[in-house]
Write a structure and sequence with these properties.
Shape: globular
Oligomer: single chain
Structural class: alpha+beta
Largest sheet: 6 strands, mixed
Mean pLDDT: 76
Low-confidence stretches: 1-19, 22-70
Radius of gyration: 16 Å
Distance between the termini: 24 Å
Strand content: 15-25%
Helix content: 25-40%
């Protein structure tokens, strides 16, 4: 499938594009090559799936701007982890997961990469899978020191992680989209990064990995 380099998506979307990269020619314990960007751009063993950014009706309202309940970003990130794992274990989603989507383990390295991406998006008021240097999720996750067989990334913005997770899951079933990343039984690790913009919006990055 053709690899696309996405343009930044301006603020105003509740969720953005999704990337899923699988290096099918890597042995289970291998790391991506240091020149991950060049390898992917040459399409060496890379499969990339994209989904159009959905738009969600209605204005967003901040539940607690500048107040204590929104102060602890790490707590908010852990709350989203609970939501992701609840969706993976939900019997209502068993037709998609086949019961094989186990709870994702928290990977601090993925979280650091995800948080840096969210902070960059919040500072620029955009949604993009590429950081200001033009680096993709593949490159950021490689630099984080993660060995992987497959990686995926969801990005979103909303005023609560619950609303963002609901929007990501409110997509067609059995598709290579945000919902598909969340429910994918191939992934076994996740990092979640959240950053708050001055207007109270949360910029959210979910980085998934299949780690050997």
């Amino acid at each position: 499938m053709k690899l696309n380099r996405w343009k930044a998506v301006p603020a105003g979307f509740a969720a953005a594009l999704v990337i899923l990269v699988k290096c099918s020619n890597l042995p289970a314990a291998a790391k991506p090559a240091p020149a991950a960007k060049q390898a992917v751009d040459r399409r060496d063993g890379a499969l990339v799936a994209t989904a159009a950014a959905p738009q969600f009706p209605g204005p967003l309202t901040s539940p607690c701007p500048d107040s204590a309940p929104c102060a602890d970003i790490e707590l908010v990130e852990r709350q989203m982890l609970e939501l992701v794992n609840a969706d993976r274990l939900d019997p209502a989603n068993r037709a998609e997961t086949g019961g094989g989507a186990k709870p994702l383990k928290w990977d601090p390295r993925l979280t650091r990469a995800a948080r840096a991406q969210s902070e960059g998006m919040a500072a620029r008021s955009i949604l993009s899978h590429y950081d200001p240097n033009g680096d993709s999720p593949v490159e950021r996750i490689y630099r984080a020191g993660v060995q992987w067989v497959a990686v995926g990334e969801n990005i979103a913005q909303d005023f609560t992680v619950a609303a963002a997770e609901s929007a990501l899951m409110n997509e067609p079933r059995f598709q290579e989209n945000h919902r598909g990343n969340i429910l994918s039984k191939k992934f076994n690790a996740i990092g979640i990064g959240v950053a708050r913009a001055p207007n109270g919006r949360l910029y959210i990055t979910q980085d998934f990995a299949e780690e050997p």
